[in-house]
Write a structure and sequence with these properties.
This protein has a five-stranded parallel beta sheet with strand order 2-1-3-4-5, sandwiched between helices. Helix 1 crosses helix 5. The protein has five helices and five strands, in the order E-H-E-E-H-H-E-H-E-H. The protein has one domain: Flavodoxin domain (Rossmann fold, 3-Layer(aba) Sandwich), CATH 3.40.50.360. Helix 1 links the parallel strand 1 and strand 2. By secondary structure, it is of the alpha/beta class.
Length: 154
């Protein structure tokens, strides 16, 4: 059975909530059609023991910045650095199929900036975005995108 592996960080619970909706949606899709993949997640935090990834996965990261506008006067990442460290650990970046970002559109150019920077720094694509806790359309869109990308890698 094909699964979609996800590594994520959740600071205020928005990403965790999105993951739960994504898992539930995947279970519904799999129940209707057993060829549709289920989702396996791992939340990365300061308490996480880093492991070597051996299977393809997707990274989900929100944007939290402290200072600068992220464009022309610098940027300081806030609170999500441990996911970047996990991705950089040994060969983990090589197994990442892409990053999905979340944020608040009120922050304009800073919206999903962390995910875009991960894509640039680690050499994998920025695949999608959603705002805050996402919508049911975001769940469907992102699940389908990941399911299609997993098919290509198998």
């Amino acid at each position: 059975m094909t699964v979609i592996n996800i590594r994520y960080i959740s600071i205020e619970g928005n990403t965790r909530s999105f993951m739960q909706h994504l898992i539930d949606y995947a279970k519904e899709q799999h129940a209707k059609n057993p060829t549709r993949p289920l989702i396996v997640t791992k939340e990365v935090s300061e308490q996480t023991d880093f492991t070597d990834e051996t299977d393809p996965y997707f990274a989900f990261v929100p944007t939290y910045l402290d200072g600068g506008n992220g464009i022309d006067n610098g940027v300081k990442e806030l609170m999500t650095n441990v996911l970047g460290e996990y991705i950089a650990y040994h060969d983990n970046r090589k197994h990442c199929l892409g990053v999905i970002g979340s944020g608040n559109r009120n922050f304009n150019e800073q919206y999903c900036l962390t995910a875009k920077r991960y894509a640039e720094n680690y050499g994998f694509p920025f695949l999608a975005d959603y705002e805050l806790r996402g919508t049911s359309r975001d769940i469907t869109r992102i699940y389908d995108l990941m399911a299609d990308k997993i098919k290509v890698t198998h």
